[in-house]
């Protein structure tokens, strides 16, 4: 009888427990919603922008287990940046080719006088060519980071591409220092002559001598050259600052700051390269006599009269040259 009584109590207790579970199950089902919980979890991840725990080692950054913002950076790095670079650089090349085929080289209408005028000193030309040479190497090695795997790896093979990329990385890192020095010197050397003024507005309205055959007056630097100057100073400053943040990681910011630095560095660099293509075009095949300014440091007097007449007047007044020097004569 005792055993039977214990068994009966066990059965009754089990039945009551089952009834309680069944009665509570609707409320539990209402409280637990896997879909809603997932939504809350995603909202939490977006707010925190990372999943971070605690670690016992000195490097606390290793406690970051997941950083959802990194997916957006990877999308920019692998997709968006390719479009920015391709459109900017290839678009500029296409525009320059079309412009050259339709406009051709800007010729000296009055011919060469046979007399020259010093335009840039040896030091100015040294700083220019040092900065320009570093820029070309930095541009090519930087393009390798973005497009190398897609364009060069299939042609060179893994071993050759790895060797090239390693040396390109060394060149990119070390040549950044003389490039930065060059940008600073350019800023200091030519700041006084690159302040915008009313003459620049008139120069732009008249097409700057590039569109059509007009020759608006200009001082030592015209509006187009001033634009290049400020692009070099501001763009070069941005790529240098962000580049050093990437070169020396975690000294100035965490991973989020470095991702932002890479976005700014790559975007500005692509646009910088596109603008420099136009600068190289004008300084070589785009305008007769322009390369001589940075090549030998001198320009023909007639070139100065057509493109920088106000600067020529200043030089004549400074050196005490007579009026005959400003008059174009036939080249011998």
TrEMBL record:
Its main location: membrane. The chain crosses the membrane at residues 83-106, 126-147, 174-192, 227-251, 263-282. One of its GO terms (biological process) is anaerobic respiration. It holds the Pfam family Ni_hydr_CYTB. It is a multi-pass membrane protein. It is found in: Cell membrane. GO terms for molecular function: electron transfer activity; formate dehydrogenase (NAD+) activity; formate dehydrogenase (quinone) activity; metal ion binding. The keyword Heme applies. It comes from the Bacteria. Residues 119-296 form the Cytochrome b561 bacterial/Ni-hydrogenase domain. InterPro entries: Cyt_b561_bac/Ni-Hgenase, Di-haem_cyt_TM, FDH_cytochrome_b556_subunit, Formate_DH_gsu. Its cofactor is heme. Residues 1-29 form the signal peptide. Keywords: Cell membrane, Electron transport, Heme, Iron, Membrane, Metal-binding, Signal, Transmembrane, Transmembrane helix, Transport. NCBIfam families: formate-DH-gamm. Belongs to the formate dehydrogenase gamma subunit family. This is Formate dehydrogenase gamma subunit. It comes from Bradyrhizobium macuxiense.
